[in-house]
Structure formats: C-alpha cells, structure tokens
Amino acid sequence: MNVVLVLWPEHAGDLGRLATAGVPRLLLVAPEATPPPPEDGDDCLQDWIRLPARDQDVRARVVALERRSARHGTPVQLALDDDGQLTYRGQSAWLSPTVRVLFQALAARFGSAVPLEQLVKEVWPAEPPSASSVRVHILRLRRRLAPLGLEIRTVQGKGYALTTRT
Questions:
Q1: Contact 152, 141 (CB under 8 A)
Q2: Which of 26, 99, 139, 155 could cross-link 113 (Cys pair, CB 3.0–4.6 Å)?
Q3: What is the pTM of this model?
Q4: CB neighbours (10 Å) of residue 150?
C-alpha cells in the first residue's frame, strides 16, 4: 500500500479523510511547527518526521509504515454517501442510482462471490432486466471502481465478487 506524505500543519485537514480511508500517512512536520498530538490509541498507520530530513530517514519511515500496514491487514474502508459518492483510500467516484445499489449488494459481501440471481433480486426486485442489461451495469460499475483500486471479479459458476486490485 502506498504511503501518503502530508505536510504538517499546512495539510492537517486531509488527515481525517486519509485515516478514514485506511491510508498510511507520514507527516512531514515543518521546522517551526509543533508535531501532532498523540491520539487515543495511536494510529499505527501514521508517523511523522521533522523537516529538513535526510532522504534515507524519510524512506525508512515510509518502509516502516508500509510494513505496519501490511501486518495489520488494513481493513477495507468504503464510504458511500446518499448522493452516490463512493470514497475509498482517499479517492472518489460517483455512482448512478442503479449502479449504487449494485455496488452496495457486492460491498455487503466484500471478497465473497455473490450469485447473479441474488444480485438481480436485490437490485431489481420488481422487474428483472435482461442478462445483457445486467452485464452492462456490471461493466459500468467496473469502470467506475477501477481508478479507486477496486475490481469486480467474475467467479466462474458462482457469481461476482468485489475485491481490491492486486
């Protein structure tokens, strides 16, 4: 997972969004600034170093954050608001109403295959569309998710699974 470098305190406002998204952060603290106060429970995905700092010291902190992130198995944190804005790892995409419901059905069982019949029941309970229409909606959702690092995998004989891109 990529570590985001954040200038402190100039970009302190970005920290909440990045933390919610589960993104590892290295704060580059300005020479005259006070470092951020330790939070309750200390976030293991955040560290800081005072500027000016040697490149090798910054690299060492970044590597340490990457290792901590991998070891802690950062949970997938998806946020979808009522307007259809999906946020994942600090990036956003907008989903149409139908694609939003399709996404929610897949996200509820993140990493597991969801049978096509179950998706159709959840997304189109009143009037099921044609198979080609379902494929078009899945294609649209795939295109919206790709820039965020998410993908929908076709699980042969099982259905579709929402996962992170590897």
A1: yes
A2: 155
A3: 0.56
A4: 25
Q: Residues 65, 47: contact at Cβ < 8 Å?
A: yes
Whether 96 shows a pLDDT value over 90: the answer reads yes
pLDDT of 165 above 90: no
Measured distance CA(78)–CA(110) in Å, rounded? 10
Same domain, 91 and 156: yes
Residue pair 58/130 in contact (Cβ under 8 Å)? The answer is: no
> From CA 133, how far away is CA 50, in angstroms rounded?
54
Please check whether residue 138 is in contact with residue 102, taking contact to mean a CB–CB distance below 8 angstroms: yes
Q: Which of 15, 34, 39 shows the shortest CA–CA distance to 25? A: 15
Domain of residue 68 covers: 4-72
